[in-house]
Every structure is written in C-alpha cells, then in structure tokens.
Task: structure prediction
Amino acid sequence: MKKIYFFIFLFAGVISLQAQNERYIDEVFTEVNVTSNVSYSTNATVLLYPVVGEAVPEVLKVDIYSPSGDTETSRPLVLIAHSGNFLPFPDNQNTSGTMTDMTPVEIANRLAKKGYVAAIFGYRKGWNPLGDQTERISTLINAAYRGIQDARTCNRFFRKTAAEDGNPYGIDPSKISIFGIGTGGYIAQGCGHLDDYNEVLLPKFIVDTPNGPLPMVIEIINGGIDGNGPAADPTAYGINPLDGDTLNYPDAALAAYSSEFAMTSNLGGALGDKSWIDENSTPQVSFHVPTDPFAPCNDGIVTVPVLELPVVDVTGSCGVLPLMNDLGLNDAMVPDWSPLDNWTIAANMNNGGAEGLMLFLSDDPTESAPWDMYLSTNQNATTPPDNPAAMIYIDSIMGYWAPRACRVMNLGCTVVSNNNISDQDVNLTMAPNPASEQINLTADMDITDVFIYDLQGRLVQAHAGVDAPYFQINRNNLSTGMYIAELKFAEGVLTKKIVFE
Result:
C-alpha cells in the first residue's frame, strides 16, 4: 500500500478555530438517510458500442444523503462526482468507479451530518485508453464532456424537484455546488469554468481528417455543454459517427432550469484548458498532490494510469488556483477570523498564497490520491478500508473546505475562535528553534496542552494535561521540516512555527 507519511497519532479534532456545534461546520447530526438509485435523466452512452454497434440509452442515477431528523427544508446541496478513470469498475483496473465507492460515501455522510444534502451521481463512462494518442485525446475529451453534461443535468433535475415536485429533498436551488473526486475532479472543474461550447474548439481538440480539420467534440452530435440541445441527425454535418447516432438526448423536462453551480471543489483531476478560466468561473477549493503522476498539478500531460500512456496537456490545481486568485474569484472565501485554523495555516505554507488551494506533499512518486479509501476486492462501503490513513486526509479536506463553503454560499455560519494570545501575554520562550532533537518551552503561566501539526494540518503529536509552566517537545520520529505547535493556556491559545533540522 502506498503511503505518504507515517502517522504517529490519529487526528484528534483539536484545531485553533473551533465552531461550537455549528451547522455546516461541525457534524451536528448523528444519523444519515440515504435514498438510492433515483433516476435523474436518460442519455446516450457509447460504453456498449463495441457490443451493440450503436449508442444506446442509459438511465442516469443518483444516491441522495440527508441528515436524519433535520427540520430545515432549504438546505445547500453538494453533488459528488466519483472517480474511476471514465471507465466502469472493474474494467478500469482500479478500486473505484461506482456511486458506492468508499471515498464519496464517506464524504457524503460527513456532509449530511454537517447539515448538507449530498448527492453522489452516476455519469456516462467510456473512452479508449489503448488507442493512439489522437484516439486517446478524442475519446477522453468526449468522456469529460459527457460527464460535465451529466453533472449539469443532475443540477437541473434537483432544481426541477424543488420548483415542481414539492422540493422532496429539502434543498435550496440557489446553493448547489459540485465536489469531484479524482476523475470526478475533471468533471467538477469543467462545470466551474467551461461556459461556452466554442471554448472546446482548441487546436489540441481538433483532428485532421481527409476532409479537413474536424472538432473532436461536435455540438450538433454531442449536444450543448449543459446536455441540452442541439440534437439533430449528425449526417447533416457531413459525417456518420457511430452509425449516425446522436450522442445526446436533451431532457425537455429539465430544459427551463439553470445549470449553474455556486462553488466547485476537486480532489485531484485537472482543467481541460486554463483558457476556460474567466470572470464567469465559480469559486473553487482544490486539493492536490503536487507530484501527482497522472493528473498534473501545474501545466502538464494527463497520463493513463497503469499503462502510463500520455494523453493531452491540461492544467491542474497548482496552475488553476493562482489564476483564479488573480481574478478575485476566491475573494469571498478569504478567512477573516483570528487566529487562523490549522488547516488554513498548513495550506498557506505550501500554496504560494493561492486561497482555496491545499496541497498534500508526498515523497512517493506514485502517489496521487492519499484521501482514497478503498478495498482491493470489492466496493463494500461498510467494511474498513485497506488504507485507514485516508480518513486523516479527509479530516483535513473537510476542515479546510467547510468554512470556505459557508462563506461562498452565505450559509450564515459564525466562526468562533479561541482567544488569541501573544508570546508577551504569557512571557513565552522557545529554544532552540530550529532544533535537532528537543525544543524547550517556558512560560509564566501553566501550559495546559501542546499539539503538533504537520504542514498538511495533520496532528502528529498530542500532549494533553501538561499543566506546567514548562514543556519539552521531543522530535521522536518527526521528519526534517517545519511544523505548527499549538500551545494552550487557560488564558488562550498560541500558535507557533517550529523547525526540526
């Protein structure tokens, strides 16, 4: 099993910023209701084309998670796109690819316990990772395009249920966001930035044919970016793909509703092209391993997992978020609380000042998804995963994401922070720092607790009940580098940077 770091302690939930049992920040509900396999639309899939020789209809499903016993009837909705390499499990030779994968189920449950409605939606799969590079590019951009259409169609489905069907899921249709995991990260980012079909007509998505250049995605065949029209006989375009089948069935019942998202979030994945970022893009929170070998964090080439074949140039979170910050797109989520929570402190150590970006550093060149919960043999979400450390990463993801979602979607959260005190308030001394093995702390008042976090916001040492005016932080197994020390006093909290050489 791949690992990023050895964990000394499991996360204990102690952070500088503590919202006290607050909806949308904390898990204020203990039970979750799940409504499974709800049909949200039907559209054309190419997945069975090698067998039946044509595109055929696929009923698209969504699993809906909501807090049990909740009396609120206008709740923000988070659509969750699972991973799986745009291929079905287990043909994708992966441990993901279904609506019941462990990772999206865990995130959906956590969101519902915070008071959200969460919906894990299925989307159409199918592309050819085994073809030549032109075939790989063409089929992959088509798969991503279909995923974006399906996400937006699912968005419109929920808006329709709220407007016409008595709002059975108790959502606020003005506060719908999307959260993409792995492959779903491509879909989520596309939903946040691709707002015009013409943006797909880039040289890398154009193929040379005997009859001249041809777009890999053709609107009259593939449909609009929302999954609405046009739908026509593709032979009118002068070609006959897939025996003349249209690849999009516009859902007339949903056509009147908006497909807009209030916010985008991604765990990995990438944006098809950074030219799609403009003033109309939605605020975005991104989580990424900067050395991800498959989905680049900066400008780079998507690589087919397992086969390690190059596909196409894209831009990942490390390239997207600075551009978004330059346009002020994430201004609404900039923290104004003090002291900053440890998730924000950890993220800011590595993100170059790009608000909304949390990076998970790794010394494993094969690591791409440390948050991925999975079983090697099945998709049973009730069984403990093969990699329990993933839960710690999900703690970090939720801790960083929740206050930003609250701010962007105006959910009325108040952030209650611990009393922030200074070194002078307790006459703190800390030496040596940097240190090789020990750092000695002394103060005029008793130190009650000491917690040490790494730069990913993970708790790596916990010392509760110190209750003395002095303490020695021992390095033990900590790697060389910077850490965050949270020192608690009866009078308040101090947050300090410490370094082990």
Q: What stands out?
A: Residues 423-500 form a domain with the Immunoglobulin-like fold (CATH 2.60.40.3080). The mean pLDDT is 89.
